């Protein structure tokens, strides 16, 4: 009886020590899951999910404080990617967070802009160029279309413009299943 | 090796199909120039790469061969006026493209004089530096005329390290119906051979092989005759099989070497150009004429007089159809390119562009019965004919399910979209459409990933910057505080007072900052008021002026007041 208790205690102690050592020796810096979730998010930093940016949302998903269906810019594709990653059921996009919309880019009406710098402070990706009392402008290639510059603008000189499809961005659509053959769906 | 029609060993490629040729119809009659239309519509994006930038304005008179749009960047091509006339419009027009989108185009009203701009021919190309030759070809707007439209000067630049062994001129023309290269080879072999010699010089290639399928005996004879006695030039007769005209397959047939996956033919010392491109290069160098026209096959059962026409770019397709006596009622579908890889046009008013090699006016009878798509029975017929030895049924399976990573594991991007698999599929599945969709979706995903990575980087940088600025501000404040605190502390001694002092100072600093913030707020409000007043004034002016005029001056006063207050705020801030 006593020997068994002693043996078990000794074992527990030994394994405890091993585990304690491993916890220190093989400590993982940061949460790799958060990184993986963050990589799936569209990085618009728009805050529509209710968190101040994509990373905080990723952290919330990792700690199961948030559902995976709160990202309107990512839309269905992001939900499926997250469901795949986390082995959860894909959910429809939560309408409280907004609807999936077309991609846009901000545009400043330079005639109306008063150079207040408020939008520059609001832009999460530094895509607005300008200085106090100088006209501002958007760096189009950096703009994520997050809409965050709209509310602070006191003169409503910022407009969100839809990104139009052109020759370089056009892609073949998904083939219509009932179409009979490769040439049929193209009609004269 | 040194001349003419020596039969050298040929290799083989996997798969391929033998669709009905239908080439005879359009070769019964010799080629002719197309009628001059009243208007030419010249899209600025007729090639692979960036669209050209217009360098003329509406109202300008242009001469034949005058550059009207300049290449924008390295992978791009200039556009030239195909005839003399007046620029009447520069705006978006529908272009012949599977998307049916519009693109910026220059519209020229022709004046009928067909007056050339002054041009200068190169005296002796063998004396000219290859890089200078490439420049002339680039300036002349020459792109690959086989169908893809890749700027030719780039494919004539092997790079300083690479040694080019073989230059292949592609006269295979393996797609059914198309005969424009065939006619050109029959009627103008001299230009092709002269172009081949220029290209060989530009590439410093060891040998040049002109490949012609054995279903074009007249073209073969004609080219052999023209090539007689020219050292390092060989004509190869290759057995007819689709898709032999695809670059990678042709390289394999001629050299026995396989172009590596994700690689280019140039990496194994081979460069491939179309025979029509060779003729265009000859005109650019020997005559100094830019690329302004091309041979186009007008065929299909709805065409009464199917033939080849030398067409100026920008000519509306309906004019060509008229010239070839088409019964427009019979046209069930209008196809640009061949029946295997071409696409349907939605409108016959679309212009001919640099990549338009063939127009097929298809009748209902020719199209045959439309057959319903059935499930894949995994018969493997597609794998038997795939010239790239892919597994089309697996690619279809994963593309259809949008499992793009798995589709890529089956080498989706090695697919040349030749359509052999769709052609043989007993279930009539539009396989190639699925591959095109999957490729496009993967490209979009990659671009979005790149963009989001960039956004993440910028966002993170911004956050660290804000943090750093905050720390710097605090450090500065602490530094400022320290000597004063010392001074205050020195005579009065007790350290508690020092701490109190510091607290007071901090409060002061805070209140100062608050006042600064408030001053800025006031300033912004003033500006907002100004803009509002401006807007209102504008609306007042636009609308009923009398009713609101009395209010306007008071607004103006308020404005001024605000202005002055903001000015004083400013002063405070400065102080």
Features:
heterodimer; A: 188 residues; mainly alpha; 3-methyladenine DNA Glycosylase II, Chain A, domain 3; Alpha-Beta Plaits; two-stranded antiparallel sheet; 5 helices; elongated; B: 575 residues; alpha/beta; Rossmann fold; 3 domains; 4-stranded antiparallel beta sheet; 17 helices; 17 strands; disordered N terminus; disordered C terminus
What does this structure look like?
The complex is a heterodimer of chains A (188) and B (575). By secondary structure, chain A is mainly α. Among the domains of chain A are: 32-97, Electron transport complex subunit B, putative Fe-S cluster (3-methyladenine DNA Glycosylase II, Chain A, domain 3, Orthogonal Bundle); 102-164, Alpha-Beta Plaits, CATH 3.30.70.20. Helices cover 31% and strands 7% of the residues of chain A. Chain A has 5 helices and 4 strands; from the N terminus they run ααααβαβββ. Chain A has helices spanning 2-25, 32-40, 54-62, 75-86, 118-122, and strands at residues 104-108, 128-129, 137-138, 158-162. In chain A, the strands form 2 sheets. A two-stranded antiparallel ribbon of chain A has the order 1-4. In chain A, a hairpin with a 7-residue loop joins strand 2 (128-129) and strand 3 (137-138). In chain A, helix 2 crosses helix 3. Chain A is elongated, with a radius of gyration of 26 Å. Residues 179-188 of chain A have low confidence and may be disordered. In chain B, helix 3 packs across helix 5 (217-227). The N and C termini of chain B lie far apart (90 Å). Chain B has 3 domains: 25-363, Rossmann fold (3-Layer(aba) Sandwich), CATH 3.40.50; 381-445, no CATH class; 511-575. Chain B has a 6-stranded mixed sheet, sandwiched between helices. A 4-stranded antiparallel sheet of chain B has the order 2-8-7-4, with no helix packed on it. In chain B, strands 11-10-9-12 form a 4-stranded parallel sheet, sandwiched between helices. Chain B contains 17 helices and 17 strands. In chain B, a hairpin with a 7-residue loop joins strand 13 and strand 14. Chain B is α/β, with parallel strands linked by helices. The chains are: A mainly alpha (188), B alpha/beta (575). The interface between A and B is large, with 41 and 55 residues.
